[in-house]
């Protein structure tokens, strides 16, 4: 489980005085990127990366608005490793009282941005993810 702090900005809020729903995906993406960097040591490069992930599916629930003045963080874990894909489960929680504001489940597919082909999740990635997820 990786925890990513989110810095809320003025422009994250909409006219109903809460965080605009489109922003949530950006928060979840920050959590995914940090998971890939910390757990898989993935260093993304525009020109040289050949092993990354692409989003095939995502489902998001919104339980409680994020209001101005609140602080949130994203919790990210991998809950299943398939052949070419992993399922990631994420939550946005209030830092102060741990209230779950939202959760999201995504299917992330191993993807080579140079060749534009999918690939099987490498054995070393499986081990690194299993080690991360089994330690808690
Ligand atoms: C996702 C795709 C590459 C899949 O292509 P396919 O030809 O179907 O792939 P495959 O047949 O090889 O299937 C590979 C796996 O994907 C799974 N898959 C494919 N499509 C789906 C859908 N729609 N739902 C669930 N699972 C899927 C499939 O079940 C296979 O899983 P395994 O059983 O574990 O092997 C293709 O549909 C595609 O290119 N879609 C567009 C993707 C896209 O543009 N996403 C948005 C941009 S990526 C992004 O925003 C991002 C954010 C944050 C990040 O950290 C990374 C990326």
Structural write-up:
This protein has 136 residues and is α+β, with helices and mostly antiparallel strands. It has one domain: Thiol Ester Dehydrase, Chain A, CATH 3.10.129.10. Helices cover 24% and strands 38% of the residues. The protein has 2 helices and 6 strands, in the order E-H-E-E-E-E-E-H. Strands 1, 2, 3, 4, 5 and 6 form a 6-stranded antiparallel sheet that branches. A hairpin with a 4-residue loop joins strand 5 and strand 6. The longest helix is centred in the first third of the chain and has 20 residues. The chain is globular, with a radius of gyration of 16 Å. The model has no long low-confidence stretch (mean pLDDT 96). The structure holds 4-hydroxybenzoyl coenzyme A. 4-hydroxybenzoyl coenzyme A (BCA) binds next to helix 1, strand 2 and strand 5.
Features of the shown structure:
single chain, 136 residues, alpha+beta, Thiol Ester Dehydrase, Chain A, six-stranded antiparallel sheet, binds 4-hydroxybenzoyl coenzyme A
Task: Give a quick precis of the structure.
With 136 residues, the chain is of the alpha+beta class. The protein contains two helices and six strands; from the N terminus they run βαβββββα. The chain has helices at residues 21-40, 123-134; strands at residues 2-6, 52-62, 72-81, 85-94, 100-112, 117-118.
